[in-house]
Amino acid sequence: NSLLILTWNANGLNRHKNELLATLQDKRIDVALISETHFTNTSILKLPGYKCFHTCHPDNTAHAGAAIIVRSTHQFYPLHNYQTPHIQACTISLTLNHQPITMSATYCPPRHNITSDQFNDYFNYLGSKFIIGGDINAKHIQWGCHTNNPRGNLLHRIITLQQYKILSPSSPTYWPNSPRKRPDILDIYITKISNSLNCHITNLNEPCSDHSPFLLSIDTLPPIKPLPPSLTNGHMNWEHFQLTIDKQINLKTRLKSSSDIDDAINSFTTSIQTAAWSSSTPIPPKSTNQNLPTNVRHLIAIKRRTRAIWQRTQYPSDKRHYNNLTQKLKRTLSEIRTESFNRHLSSITTKDNSIWKATKNILRTPQQIYVLKNPDGTWTTSDEEKADILREHLSSTFKPHYSLLSPIKVDEINTSLDSPLPMTMPPKHISPHEVAYQIKKSQKHKSPGYDLITSEVAVHLPKKALLFLTFIYNSMIRLTYFPLLWKFSIIIMIHKPGKPAEMPQSYRPISLLPYFSKIFEKLILKRLLPIIEKNLPNTQFEFRHNHSTIHQIHRLVDKISFSLEKKLICTGVFLDVEQAFDRVWHQGLLHKIKAFFPPYLYLLIKSYLSDRHFSVRSGTILSNISKIEAGVPQGAVIAPLLFNIYTADQPTTQNTIVADFADDKALLACHSDPDIAASYMQTHLDLLASWYTVWGLKLNQTKSLHSTFTLRPRDCPQLFLNNQPLPYSQNVKYLGLTLDRRLTWAPHIRSKRLTLNNRSRQLRHLLTSKHINLNNKLLLYKMLLKPIWVYGIQLWGSAKPTNINRIQTYQSKTLRQITKAPFYVSNHTLHHDLSIPLVADVAKIHYKRFHNRLLNHRNPLMHDISSLTIPGNPPKRLKRKWCRNLLNN
Fold first, then answer.
1. How far apart are alpha carbons 429 and 451 in whole angstroms?
2. Of the candidates 208, 212, 129, which has an alpha carbon nearest to the alpha carbon of residue 170?
3. Which stretches make up the Reverse transcriptase domain (predicted)?
């Protein structure tokens, strides 16, 4: 029942990670404080059963640095790294005896002169209770060193003044390779903890570098991290689950009012939860410890004795014997790790999805635990603080832009909403068969909402439960009431790559809603779609049947192609709406849907949008509950459709074409005179700016882009949005494809080749392994690599052969790598034998398939795309090929 803390100067951690892992598992270490890791910002250390954090030197080169390794079952919170040239510290906070204590792995390079202010600044950063472990490079006879040095004298004065405590081992921790240097103690603990915590220090001989580790034992343990709550914690007895629910459900439950519906849902949810927990048999957690073979343990023991002999005698012959044993142990541990990995690769198959689990572990970017800044500039020290900061940020986000809304417009909308509704026919009821069908086809392995109900649980509901759920759904439609319990969401925050991690704005919210609320939304969606289809503009392609991003980009490509063939200048603007889905004004949305929704659907959506609340989850902590005052519900099924309705009446002009995909908006205007083309575009931008202001949405002038598509050297004049100049760019990325000035597709293909190279490096071990059969390797290529470059090939597949060859070269190289084909096997033979088409053939196949599906499309804008020539049929002037040339053999 003791907390075991290992402190060690690794002098380059990557070289010793196998030995370190063996020691951590053999000694059952809880926390390891490592100094001199030689890590950089891109370094990643993964050890099974442990969480690893590191701080590198401020110059981001492979020297100095510190790391802290914590058993993953312990509850802790990583703190902001202390990173200066003279002190590098990696820090966590954990609780011992109900007291929060800061634990820090520290390294102080010897070449810097550290002042008392710098030491005091570091100690103040740690707080009132802390344990520091690492290589301070401070010598003083007070903690067992042979001599004092200036840094040791300074540190001793500070420790005496502040009443800190030094804990040092009984024997040296630094063993120099030169016989002229004397072994001494450089690694120590500095503590400021309660006297009730008894500490004991032990020297260790494993793992080894030019420093030896030592162990601090504290007679307490931090709290164990609670497991994520789940209804299926182990083996499930589904028959018992169904019988238990059948006994608890009463089909004669009263459903005459909104409170009756809330009570029925609460009772229904509780019945499912208690039945699931009573029907599950917990499975003991799997041990991550690696049992070392007897010969390895024997080799470790011999090496340990040899090191002790060399430390005692300092003979060169003993040092050589010790070095030989060290290298032998490293090779043996590396071979064991390699054999284990090869056995894992040999067991990979598609039958049990193990191949996808392996690739997911490789490709998944590890979600680091980031520390946020408080409004006063200090750093968060717990999950509670972090969750509260994120809640406040989201609470301010889920509000309308009141500063944009006109009081006159608000009064007009409110008057409209107060007007009486017309009479209507009663709605069609939901049948149990519809409910069962939606549950059956719902996606599995989705994170549950606060009620923990998942698709796996819902699929096993008995018929009586499905009938009761159908009663609830029909009563919701009859009373036009959406239950309060289904309007509460738990939000988890995902860091946006490349954004500053300390800012709340750098996190993307992911909303987790109750499962049965999303099933009801899918059932309502069937009734909404026929009504909405008639009222959405043809230019809106998102969340519509048989509409895709490729269709929308094709319209833009056709317009640009026409202008290039006709020697016109095409100016384009690509708008970014700031927090578009989160800022939708509820009253304005209700005003718009009231115009064409049946009364029962209007009232149901009104109830659906009102009184929504959320809570932010950070680690295992939930923040306080906050209200959502604006926006379409993030993560909801019908949210994109509601947003499309809200933006359906945006102004258009005859001289511009519009392409919408949800909140991604593009505008194009063409003319032989660039000034006239710019005037067309500026007129449309002014109309849009006015519309967005009226309806409480804000355009982001800094992220919106202006570009010119032409073969001429001249650009269009500067465009303005809300009197602010729009940033200009030669290349623009829209819906995943990069459009360049001359529409050569070269920038897009270059970026895809870089992405493919990075992905191939990640999958290299799988693609080149001799333990995975050829069919599985080809499957990995087709599922994880090929889709990266295939996207949009219907359009960029007509690029010049020199550009297409970039992707073809990559495919040939990858197939040769997979098959290990010798040099004399031609690329044509490789493709033929593996039944892999060439890139140029893939482009033709995809475009022909794409073009054939355009026939008889209900959207009139698709008629131009389905033509055999560029819309407008301009005379062929350029030698280049366009995408429709792919139809020719």
1. 26
2. 212
3. 475-739
What angle separates helix 463-479 from helix 238-248, to the nearest 10 degrees? 50
* Cβ(723)–Cβ(715) below 8 Å: no
What DSSP state is assigned to residue 331? H
Q: State pLDDT tens for residues 382-419.
A: 889 999 999 999 999 999 999 899 999 999 999 999 88
What tokens does 235 get? Answer: 């083996």
Determine the pLDDT at residue 299. 83
In this structure, what token pair is assigned to residue 833?
């034998």
Band of residue 672 on the pLDDT scale cut at 50, 70, 90: very high
Q: Please write down the long-range contacts of 727-735, taking CB distance under 8 Å and 24 or more positions apart.
A: 727/702, 729/705, 731/707, 732/572, 732/574, 732/705, 732/707, 734/553, 734/556, 734/574, 734/664, 734/666, 735/549, 735/552, 735/553, 735/661, 735/664
Model pLDDT, residue 366: 64
Task: Give the distance from CA 547 to its chain's centroid.
Answer: 27
Instruction: Map residue 657 onto helix, strand or coil.
Output: strand
Helix axes 746-767, 801-819, angle to 10 degrees: 0
Mapped to the 3 state alphabet, what secondary structure does 349-384 carry?
Answer: CCCCCHHHHHHHHHHCCCCCCCCCECCCCCECCCHH
Q: Give Cα 521 to chain centroid, integer Å.
A: 26
Split at pLDDT 50, 70, 90, the class of 733 is very high
pLDDT for residue 434 = 94
Other CB atoms closer than 10 Å to residue 881's CB: what's the count? 14
Q: Which domains does the chain have, with CATH numbers?
A: 3-218 (3.60.10.10), 234-282+393-531 (no CATH), 294-346 (no CATH), 532-585+635-739 (3.30.70), 746-887 (no CATH)
Please identify which residue in the block is written with the tokens 């590198």.
Answer: 56
Rounded distance between C-alpha atoms, residue 266 and residue 251, angstroms: 15
**What is the distance in angstroms between the CA of the first residue and the CA of the last residue of the chain?**
75
Pairing of strands 199-203, 626-628: unpaired
pLDDT at residue 287, as a whole number = 66
Average pLDDT of span 579-588: 93
Q: How far is CA 880 from the centre of its chain?
A: 40
